[in-house]
Write a structure and sequence with these properties.
globular, alpha/beta, 17 strands
Length: about 350
């Protein structure tokens, strides 16, 4: 693609990935406009948020390459849309993914309405690639870095958003990106990757939920025996398949079920209990980025891991699909996104939400 005749907006987060995106474009003689999306706490709120440092980093990098930086405030949109989606799901016992919806609703959504619509392409630091086929269809494709690949976080964006997406570092390994940042003396070359929710910096996910939903203590029972082994502070703090941070003696314990009506958390004992596995499960609201797809030979993943699983996708009535995995899968939870790929996990087809 010839970028010289394109108007490009770069989303700078303050991290090393988006900074190297700007370097890559500047290296080609381009001077894109840069944008920092502001989504942080309200002024005066006591949140351990890194947004001030992020903006400083983004400003320094944009100045280094002589590019204009504009701050776009999407605070209200984030809390109205992404937080509302997240809290609605966790209240009903589901396991949502705020980062997935953040890409659709904020980075390629609210930002587009406020500024991105004036540009041909929106460049981000995602580890993902795109390709155009013979029919001029644009496909979302995986990164060669299996650990950093972020196609699963992008699988809910719309086709028109994919058309405008540009991923200049998507063909690189993380180590290459770090090496470039250090070689070019970027101010954030040694900065650690953020581990929290998109835009929330150092805010802990459970604190994020507690802020809106509070606590709702209930019993924790062993699934096989019904024996009470402890108390939980709220079902929304736990996910199916969870085995860390439970704090019950005599384990290890796995979360295998949540009864929202009775407010009971069911756990199973052992290092690998069969109750924690499923080989078939349903998805609904299947969102496809590009069509057609081969439903007989797919790969999928249900969480952000390097591993892919092989399956057959069967269409049912009412917009439901059943995923027939060739192997039992650990920790299948309603509300998670099941992300679909071709059989060699190169092209990402899209994703659907796992249902009960």
């Amino acid at each position: 693609m010839n970028l010289n005749d394109k108007r490009i907006a770069v989303l700078l987060s303050g991290g090393v990935d988006s900074s190297v995106v700007l370097y890559e474009l500047a290296r080609q003689g381009l001077h894109p406009d840069c944008f920092y999306i502001k989504i942080g706490p309200e002024e005066g709120e006591e949140w351990d948020c890194s947004s001030e440092e992020d903006l400083e980093m983004a400003t320094a990098v944009s100045h280094k390459y002589g590019c204009r930086l504009e701050v776009v405030d999407c605070h209200q949109e984030y809390w109205d849309q992404v937080t509302a989606y997240t809290m609605e799901k966790v209240k009903t016992g589901f396991t949502p993914n705020p980062d997935v919806m953040c890409n659709r609703l904020i980075k390629f959504g609210a930002f587009h309405e406020k500024a991105g619509k004036d540009y041909d392409l929106i460049a981000t630091g995602h580890y993902a690639q795109t390709e155009i086929d013979e029919q001029d269809r644009k496909w979302l494709c995986t990164s060669p870095d299996p650990v950093k690949d972020q196609t699963d976080f992008l699988a809910q964006i719309y086709d028109w958003q994919l058309r405008k997406a540009l991923f200049p570092i998507g063909h690189m390994m993380k180590e290459e990106v770090r090496e470039i940042a250090e070689r070019e003396h970027l101010v954030n070359a040694k900065r650690k990757d953020s581990q929290g929710i998109c835009f929330l910096g150092k805010i802990n996910y459970n604190d994020y939920i507690r802020r809106y939903l509070g606590e709702q203590p209930g019993d924790v029972l062993e699934l096989e025996t019904g024996k009470k082994i402890g108390k939980h502070k709220g079902l929304w703090f736990h996910t199916i398949g969870q085995r860390h941070g439970l704090g019950f003696g005599g384990g290890p314990w796995f979360v295998v079920k949540k009864d929202m009506q009775q407010n009971i958390l069911y756990v199973s004992k052992g290092y690998d209990p069969q109750t924690a596995y499923k080989q078939e499960f349903r998805i609904h609201d299947l969102h496809l980025l590009t069509t057609p797809i081969d439903t007989k030979n797919i790969c999928f993943k249900i969480r952000h891991t390097p591993e892919f699983h092989h399956a057959i996708l069967e269409a049912e009535e009412g917009g439901l699909y059943t995923v027939h995995s060739d192997k039992p899968i650990h920790g299948v939870a309603p509300g998670q996104f099941c992300v679909l790929y071709d059989e060699v996990h190169h092209r990402c087809y899209g994703s659907g939400e796992i249902t009960v």
